Amino acid sequence: MKTFDDILEQSRFDRDDLKRLLDSRGAEAEKLRQRALAVKLGTLDNHVHLRGLVELSNICRKDCLYCGLRRSNTKVVRYTVSDEEVMGCARLALELGYGSMAIQCGERSDRAFTERITRLVREIKRLSDNSIGITLSCGEQSEEVYREWFEAGAHRYLLRIESSDKSLYEKIHPQDDVHDFERRLACIDSLLKTGYQTGTGVMVGLPFQTLDHLVHDLLFFQEKDVAMVGLGPFLPHPDTPLWAYREQIPSDEERMRLTLNMIATLRLMMPEINMVAATATQTLDPQGREKAVEAGANVIMPNLTPQQYREEYLIYPDKACVGDKPEQCRGCLDLRMKSIGHEILYNAWGDSVAFTKRSARQGSA
Ligand code: SAM
Ligand code: SF4
């Protein structure tokens, strides 16, 4: 019978090992996180990469049962950040030394929207003389659209699978053509094929979610060989259908523990990927992002969205840092990372080492 310490020394893990790691608590969970931190420091150093986040629009054609931006939520005042304001964010990113931006929004697939993204990506690239790297997180699109955005200059894309288990995915989405598990999977494959540094991820602590589901998610990330993962705790929103199940989900502390164990276990499985310390972790715990970085995450997404829109991009309630000005945010993050022995790398794209190495192997094959 393997001990917990035996499992920690392995570089490959079976389902039982993963379940043991995810279920760890107390001193064992501490050991898991310390081991993940050591693996990260040995592989990626103590560097943290930034993605200046623009929450471009809260208009969404989807109705995900967990998200405050879902189209049926009539309490949301819908907005779109103007082109001039987006370029203002890009100038701010340059000024603050953020080497990359992330553009995130509700999902739209009409041509006016997809062309606008193409234009914005090109303009940010032109304005910054290609010095700003761009991550998009604009939902499910056709392969042609993904290619168009890639050719315009976006080189990373984040599309969380939300849950890699089809039946759980179907429980947290409406049963219709707009919310289709197979299509979401196909989109991830299209992104990989197009050449993006592709990121995916899940919410942790969803209603109906078990440890086996989370183990399945970890194996899914590995099987897809993704370059980045963004995972964070599920936070129930009062204006969504999943609010009714809030008593049935693990406590805040439990969801935090599970999220950190997911991050740490994944760092052991995929030492070279980029992993986001999600803002959602800080909503559950004031030290959430630091804890995520200490458990193996290496990317943070400080918010650049113009202040007047932020209160309307509440995918979940009580979002952390909504009132912070970008200049404050930069100083605060710098201090927070230094306090845990980490260093923010400014003026760098901060690409995924996993992706760069894989591309080099493919190039020399
Ligand atoms: N619309 C795009 C999409 O869904 O891929 C991108 C924006 S969406 C707001 C970004 C992520 O927010 C989703 O992938 C989901 O995992 C997360 N999210 C939505 N509602 C949430 C909630 N209640 N708690 C935690 N995360 C949530
Ligand atoms: Fe729209 Fe994304 Fe929210 Fe789903 S998670 S409702 S696609 S913004």
Structure description:
This protein is of the alpha/beta class and about 375 residues long. It has a single domain (about 10-365), classed as Alpha-Beta Barrel (TIM Barrel). It is about 45% helix and about 10% strand. The protein contains 15 helices and 11 strands. It has helices at about 5-10, 15-20, 25-45, 85-95, 110-125, 145-150, 165-170, 180-195, 210-225, 250-270, 280-285, 290-295, 305-310, 325-340, 355-365; strands at about 45-50, 50-55, 100-105, 135, 155-160, 195-200, 205, 230-235, 275, 300, 345. The strands form 2 sheets. Strands 2, 3, 4, 5, 6, 7, 8 and 9 form an 8-stranded parallel beta sheet that branches. A 3-stranded parallel beta sheet has the order 10-1-11, covered by helices on one side. Helix 10 (about 250-270) links the parallel strand 8 (about 230-235) and strand 9. Helix 2 (about 15-20) crosses helix 9 and helix 4 (about 85-95) packs parallel to helix 5. It is globular. The termini are far apart. The model has no long low-confidence stretch (mean pLDDT about 95).
